[in-house]
Amino acid sequence: MKEEIIIAGFGGQGVLSMGKILAYAGLMEGKEVTWMPAYGPEQRGGTANVTVIISDEKISSPILSQYDTAILLNQPSLDKFQPKVKVGGTIIYDSFGIIEKPKREDINNFCLDAMNTAAEMKLMKTFNMMVLGGFLKLHPIVSIESVMKALKKSLPERHWDLLPMNEQAILKGMEIIHKQ
Amino acid sequence: MAEEKEILLMKGNEAIAHAAIRCGCDGYFGYPITPQSEVLETLALLKPWETTGMVVLQAESEVASINMLYGGGGSGKRVMTSSSSPGVALMQEGIAYMAGAEVPGLIVNVQRGGPGLGTIQPSQSDYNQATRGGGNGDYHVIVLAPNSVQEMADFVDLGFELAFRYRNPAMILSDGVIGQMMEKVILPPLKPRRTNEQIYEECPWAANGHGLKKRGPNVITSLELESAAMEKRNLHLQKKYAECEEKEVRFEEQYCEDADYIIVAFGSASRISQKAMDNMREQGLKVGLFRPITLWPFPSKELKRLSEKVKGMLVVEINAGMMVFDVQAAVEYSIPVQHFGRLGGIVPDPDEIVQAMEKLRKVAK
Question: What residue spans define the domains of chain A?
């Protein structure tokens, strides 16, 4: 098993932490992982992105030319990374803020309305976990249990009361993801 | 503190900080700069002054940091600093003083694009500065180039060991990719800081107020007004460097046994090159990867040996061509050696390296 993923969106959407939780969950399952952020001024409001690789074998490059899956949360990210998805690969996008949907027919395009759903459920802070849930529904490369363990490990203890909310968001994401 | 053998997920910069505490570092002096600020941040978070007694100090500048290293190292303590390219440029005078006065110390450079203030993105364009000394005079710094978060952790202790063995500054030459990336890491075993008695025993040359009555004061200086004495001191340094070149060369080979072409790359470029190599191997092309781990001393003999059975070498580095000259000299210009790199903070992707190899193959058949 090897999955090469790019996650991209606006700074503040939780792109980097989504990647971190995913990588952490992979680590919990004894897999090899790398997490490589674009650490530039992007973090302060522009487009942020992170490359996450989860594999059974040792990982060579943390920087890639092409991806198995692209999780794209705004239009500039979609425009930038759509051409870099491998043939037969997957794009997952949030319909909020996407003006031009992915056009490629040689890949699988999936959509979820996480931004609006999170707002309706008053779970805005867990928007990124909802998107992660959608991804894990399609590609169950790590278990929900590992993701929850990863969350617990990376959240300070004073925030552990937020764990059930995050799990709820992950499950909701699995429910609402659909083919474009 | 993490348990022994526990597998953790952390950034290269964080690994440096954890490793420093665990391998008995006495003092860290630094000034924040992207992309290495997590070293100082992590140390501040871990508060080692409460556990091992290690000093962590944010100095007023990089110039101050390196001179604190000069003082700390001069008293026989295991001291380190970290910075990124423009900050390390500021430190060069202090590093030359340390080399001249034979003071050990560890400098970490998490490189970013230059020249000048440049950019905050990854680069390897401090290769020449690191391997040629960087400051004035005939000296070398022992340069280790990690290519993973694990090596970031492992090379802290190794750096200190080499620095004290040769009484010379050692450097970990990393870059923004390795510093910012998170990977699995097992932290080195906990090693206590040396006691003053151990330091007196191991560093009889140190100026720490000990042994004055027995042998008079130790003087730490790089200044020598008599040129004959200065030449003698230089010859002593050169002898030491020759020994270091003899004994401390470190490198890694992958698929070099049957290779027709070899990629030579260090640090993050070697990771990206590995992916390019794997892709080319899948296409049936016999490509190998040679990774210098010590950039000085440079693995010239090993490259010379490999050059006798390959058609060409591609040197991939994230700069405009620096190590390529060392490779060309090592193989004595006997085979085509080409360079590929991106500049100013742009990191090449594996496909670009595959294309560069196609170019090399046209001239090296």
Answer: 2-112+142-158
